[in-house]
């Protein structure tokens, strides 16, 4: 018996990290609901600036909230201290250059997006 897969306007791209517990929770959520997606390792192939801008806009979060604030790279680079001066363009440029700086996972179909994982936002976006 073949499993029924839900389709969305564009194929869902899941930018995550297999060792990240938040990414694993989000993957389980989508899989449990039969929602197919393409997994992309965010540390090896981070989303482009354009994808990140679209995701932030669609998820209705400010660019500066796209940072993985609990990550080692974030702390090592002292980004917390730099945030006040950073413009959105600078933020997206930094994020696109280093996937370890991005809050995970970023899930998008080109029109809708979620950043991080909360069951509430997934219910609203990927139902």
What do these coordinates show?
The longest helix is centred in the N-terminal third of the chain and has 12 residues, at 21-32. By secondary structure, this protein is α+β, with helices and mostly antiparallel strands. The protein is globular. It has a single domain, classed as Glutaredoxin (3-Layer(aba) Sandwich). Helices cover 39% and strands 11% of the residues. Helix 2 (49-59) crosses helix 5 (88-97). The protein has helices at 21-32, 49-59, 72-76, 79-82, 88-97, 119-125; strands at residues 13-16, 38-41, 106-108, 113-115. The chain is built from six helices and four strands. Strands 2-1-3-4 form a four-stranded mixed sheet, with helices on both faces. The model is unreliable at 1-8 (pLDDT under 50).
What labels would you give this structure?
127 residues; alpha+beta; 4 strands
Kindly summarize this structure in a few lines:
The chain is of the alpha+beta class and 127 residues long. The chain is built from 6 helices and 4 strands; from the N terminus they run βαβααααββα.
Write the layout of secondary structure elements.
Blueprint: E1 13-16, H1 21-32, E2 38-41, H2 49-59, H3 72-76, H4 79-82, H5 88-97, E3 106-108, E4 113-115, H6 119-125
Parallel strand pairs: 1-2
Antiparallel strand pairs: 1-3, 3-4
């Amino acid at each position: 018996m073949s499993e029924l897969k839900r389709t969305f306007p564009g194929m869902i791209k899941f930018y995550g990290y297999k060792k990240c517990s938040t990414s694993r929770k989000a993957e389980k959520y989508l899989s449990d609901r039969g929602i197919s997606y393409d997994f992309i390792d965010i540390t090896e192939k981070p989303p482009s600036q354009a994808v990140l801008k679209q995701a932030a806009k669609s998820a209705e979060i400010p660019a500066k909230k796209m940072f993985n604030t609990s990550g080692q790279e974030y702390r090592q680079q002292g980004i917390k201290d730099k945030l006040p001066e950073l413009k959105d363009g600078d933020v997206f440029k930094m994020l696109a250059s280093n996937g370890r700086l991005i809050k995970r996972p970023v899930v998008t179909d080109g029109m809708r997006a979620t950043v991080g994982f909360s069951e509430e936002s997934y219910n609203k976006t990927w139902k």
